[in-house]
Write a structure and sequence with these properties.
- This protein is α+β, with helices and mostly antiparallel strands and 769 residues long.
- Among the domains are: 2-158, no CATH class; 164-253, Ubiquitin-like (UB roll) (Roll), CATH 3.10.20; 257-354, membrane protein fhac (Ubiquitin-like (UB roll)), CATH 3.10.20; 624-769, Beta Barrel (Porin), CATH 2.40.160.50.
- A hairpin with a 2-residue loop joins β21 (572-573) and β22 (576-578).
Length: 769
């Protein structure tokens, strides 16, 4: 028996090549093999929000994945039968390999009786009724294949007219401490003419319950709201009554206040609590000493003795404590207590356990860039939690990358790629404080995350045969969100120093031919201050999403004031000049969900940097570039612009010239789900970069109203996106339609050579915008 299983294992590789074997022998007599969903036809579908939501839910109910589902699809499948052979023949395997193959590759055939189309159709009808489409029908139809052993299941859905509200009678008469009007039309979610759908009713239940729980009604739950609907008084409409449930308890109708607050702090060994301290009205209990200083913990506990219970304060407390990144978990429990003066109190018990002090991560990568550079990378990160017993996190990261140039042939040699090898070593240290290190705000807790961060970075970049550069940087950052969807990031002081430690004759020759490039590579300090404002809408029920990100920075302005009038320029700091510029960017994103499977995403981007005073050329790291996976996808990164400029003779350093002071870009992408979690997309990108000052070494590079349209590059293409739930893998194939050209020729000037189409392939993670 053992020998038979060992001999059967090599046959698995042969079975993998057999795709068209008959499945009939694996199907019990009288059963039918399910090969996936057929067409789902929907008739009389109204163009309203409930229909969009109902369509998505009913499709999920009717869907059932077949064997060999392709990308998680319920329609497309791989026609292999080897999983059934493995399931039948290796079920009793005793050797390790046989058991592994059986566990990972064997499966039973999915039968039509397992799918149970009539039951799914009945559940689908109930889903439609929950969205207000009473009287709709869902009818399954089975399409048998020629062998009569396999079949697909489709559904015909006929939508009825939605049932709408004719009147609403609120009978929930609860007087809150602040006399809240639960029937206020501006806050309630039910209105005359709305569709009578379960999701609207549940949303209104949740609104009322949340409003009451935020005003002391701790035991009030959404289930305490009861609905009665009369659908006979007015034909085709419903008269709705909102009332309290018969099961609502007296405790749910009573206002509760916070009593004694006790906070138990366990170390990671869960040692016995031997000490206690009453601090700011909170009884802290711990072993020997609290893991976090009590003044930081007390400021994050929003529940106070004597205050009316508020659910938002509890949520804010949990969020604020989690920002410390110190505790493995935090739990709440409440004990009701009635006092002699008829007050209803809730004694609060909080429990937190300290997390492990260290966390380490080793990351290995291999990069394939659109500029034909490829190579491996390795990074080690170590985090130390709760460094100063205030929730601070100290992070250290050591990173190394090695890349080489591939895929380009010199014009004067048929074979020989550019020999550009480069490596990067980086060491960075960050100290993050879960609060704003600003006088007056040091202990103030915010509703949403807020932090301060100090960082030091040292990096060494070497491009073999050209140059070796070192960079040292210091950074101070504040980030906070005063309101949901609004964020501020302030960097009052960021200083970096770039230093060329080695340069070759070939590099000097390139800089001599391009003086502007030489100025951007000089040894220099960049003392900088910046501010970033972000805004985004967060309504999961809306088809529209919008975000805005505005950024402004300046460098060297305050420092230049420290030099006496008449000091020759450029001013120097520690023997090196420093940059002086202003920079701003604005990015707008808008997306529209056309249907459950189709969406439209757009982006508009503008950015400019202007150098003056101490230097007239912006640092290379601050300049703009175009092309690549998140820009104009018909062009590889740093192969476009500035303006209509193009190097006359390609060289290994051509990409260094493709930077500018101004960047304008617009993108549009249509995305559609085709198979399971696989999406296809078609896109159009337009834009370019320009110089703001004339540069003799870069003709046609400055922006001009006369040549603006010719300078705007245009590309299109197709892409695939696969959603892995944790991340999205993206593959885009871009085609350059128009490359900046001031010769006055045809606009679509990149498609002339049919044998050499201007294609660019990009593999990336995440959506481009």
């Amino acid at each position: 028996m053992r020998h038979r299983h060992y001999l059967s294992i090599p046959l698995v590789s042969l079975l993998l090549t057999v795709a068209g074997c008959s499945v009939a022998k694996y199907i019990p007599e009288g059963e039918t093999f399910y090969t996936g969903m057929g067409k789902v036809k929907i008739e009389n579908a109204p163009d309203i929000e409930e229909m969009r939501l109902a369509k998505g839910d009913v499709t999920r109910v009717l869907s059932y994945k077949p064997n060999g589902s392709l990308f998680g699809s319920s329609r497309a499948r791989l026609p292999f039968t080897y999983p059934f052979w493995i399931q039948r023949n290796l079920a009793g395997a005793t050797d390790p390999l046989g058991r592994w193959v059986y566990k990972n590759f064997g499966s039973e055939p999915i039968l039509l009786s397992t799918v149970n189309p009539p039951l799914r159709a009945q559940v689908g009808k109930q889903v439609l009724e929950e969205y207000g489409f009473f009287g709709s029908t869902v009818v399954p139809h089975i399409t048998y294949d020629k062998d009569s052993v396999t079949a697909k299941v489709g559904y015909d859905i006929t939508m009825s007219e939605p049932l709408r509200l004719d009147s609403i009678d609120y009978r929930v008469h609860i007087v809150t401490p602040d006399s809240l009007d639960l029937q206020d039309p501006s806050t309630r979610l039910l209105h005359k003419g709305d569709v009578l759908s379960v999701w609207r009713l549940e949303s209104e239940r949740q609104r009322i319950a949340s409003a009451l729980r935020d005003r002391g009604y701790y035991y009030f739950q959404p289930g305490d709201i009861h609905y009665d609907a009369d659908t006979l008084a007015v034909p085709g409409k419903a008269q709705l009554r909102v009332d309290l449930s018969d099961k609502t308890t007296q405790d749910a109708l009573r206002v509760w206040s916070v009593g004694q607050v006790t906070y138990d702090l366990y170390d990671r060994h869960r040692s016995a609590l031997t000490d206690s301290t009453l601090y700011d009205g909170i009884l802290f209990r711990y072993h020997d000493q609290p893991p976090v200083k009590l003044r930081f913990l007390a400021s994050r506990v929003r529940l106070e003795d004597g205050q009316v219970y508020n659910e938002r304060y509890q949520t804010a407390t949990i969020t604020s404590l989690s920002e410390l990144e110190t505790f493995a978990y935090t739990n709440f429990s409440y004990t009701p207590r009635h006092t002699a003066d008829s007050l209803s109190l809730l004694d609060v018990s909080m429990v937190s356990m300290e997390d492990k002090p260290y966390a380490a991560e080793l990351e290995a990568t291999y990069r394939l860039k659109s500029n034909n550079q490829t190579g491996p990378g390795l990074a080690l990160s170590i985090n130390k939690r709760n460094v100063f017993h205030g929730g601070e996190t100290l992070s250290m990261r050591l990173q190394g990358n090695y890349e080489w140039q591939t895929g380009y042939r010199k014009s004067n040699r048929e074979s020989a790629a550019w020999d550009i090898n480069s490596y990067l070593f980086l060491l960075s240290t960050d100290l993050k404080f879960p609060r704003l290190l600003i006088p007056g705000l040091y202990y103030r807790p915010f509703t949403y995350p807020a932090y301060s961060k100090l960082g030091l970075t040292a990096a060494l970049l070497s491009r073999s045969g050209f140059y070796r550069q070192m960079q040292f940087a210091y950074d101070m950052e504040y980030r906070f969100e005063p309101f949901r969807g609004v964020r501020h990031t302030v960097r009052p002081l960021s200083v970096s120093y770039n230093h060329l430690v080695r340069r070759t004759a070939a590099f000097d020759e390139a800089l001599a031919a391009n003086p502007g490039l030489g100025l951007s590579f000089r040894n220099q300090f960049i003392p900088q201050a910046s501010y970033l404002f972000g805004f985004e809408t967060r309504d999961p029920l809306s088809r529209h999403t919008f975000s805005l990100e505005a950024y402004v920075s300046e460098a060297g302005n305050l420092l230049s004031l420290c030099y006496p009038k008449g000091t020759p320029r450029p001013y120097r700091l520690a023997g090196a000049s420093f940059a002086q510029f202003v920079k701003g960017t604005l990015e707008l994103r808008y997306a529209y969900q056309i249907s459950s499977a189709v969406s439209l995403a757009t982006r508009a981007y503008g950015g400019a940097i202007y150098s003056y005073g101490n230097q007239t050329v912006a640092p290379y790291t601050e300049q703009f570039y175009s092309g690549g996976a998140n820009s104009l996808r018909g062009f590889n990164v740093r192969t476009l612009g500035p303006g209509a400029y193009s190097p006359l003779t390609p060289s290994p350093l051509s990409f260094l010239d493709r930077t500018g002071d101004l960047r304008l870009e617009a993108n549009m992408e249509l995305r559609a789900k085709v198979v399971g979690d696989l999406e296809v997309a078609t896109f159009v990108d337009a834009g370019n970069i320009w110089l703001l000052r004339e540069d003799p070494s870069k003709p046609d590079a400055t922006i001009s109203t006369r040549h603006f349209l010719q300078d705007v590059a245009l590309s299109t293409g197709l892409g695939l996106r696969y959603d892995l739930s944790m991340l999205v893998v993206r593959l885009d194939l871009g085609v350059a339609l128009h490359s900046p050209d001031r010769s006055g020729g045809q606009y679509f000037n990149t498609l002339g050579d049919k044998h050499n189409l201007p294609l660019a392939l990009h593999l990336a993670v995440g959506y481009p915008f």
